[in-house]
Amino acid sequence: MIDQSLPKTADDALKKIARLVSVRDRSVSEMRKRLIELEFEEQQVEEALHRALECGLLDDERFAQSYITRKLASGWGRDRIKKSLKEFEVDFNDLKDCPEVFLDEDVEIERAIRELARFRTNARNVREARYRRLAAKGYSYDVISAALIRIEANRSD
What we know:
Strand content: under 5%
Order of helices and strands: HHHHHHHHH
Number of strands: 0
CATH architecture of the domain at 103-156: Orthogonal Bundle
Low-confidence stretches: none
CATH class of the domain at 103-156: Mainly Alpha
Distance between the termini: 63 Å
Number of helices: 9
Radius of gyration: 21 Å
Largest sheet: none
Helix content: 55-70%
CATH topology of the domain at 103-156: Arc Repressor Mutant, subunit A
Shape: elongated
Structural class: mainly alpha
């Protein structure tokens, strides 16, 4: 733990970064905000971030890959993930190695169908409830429509 009686240094900030990324990957902007909250001076924060980037402790590309994978596993749709990445100041369009599964609309439709398979509702209008569920998870209108059509087609077979 950092001794509060001594002035904080860039080394202290770098140690804090190392501890936080040992739990999970973090974006540069997320780490900047965290260090500022911990009352490190701007110069210390920027020096520590620069060093962390140089040695590979921080990497927005790696953070995004990990984040996308976690959110896909949680049933999130592509649109919600892209929007959420912006909160971390990571632009999806700047990512070099985006997971291919993330770009494939057929895979997105299959994920939406799996999400609906776990979804239970007592709503009068089940189709509307399913639509709202997928929209809340961040699926596009086209993906939701395709998933609902497939589910309804399978039920009528």
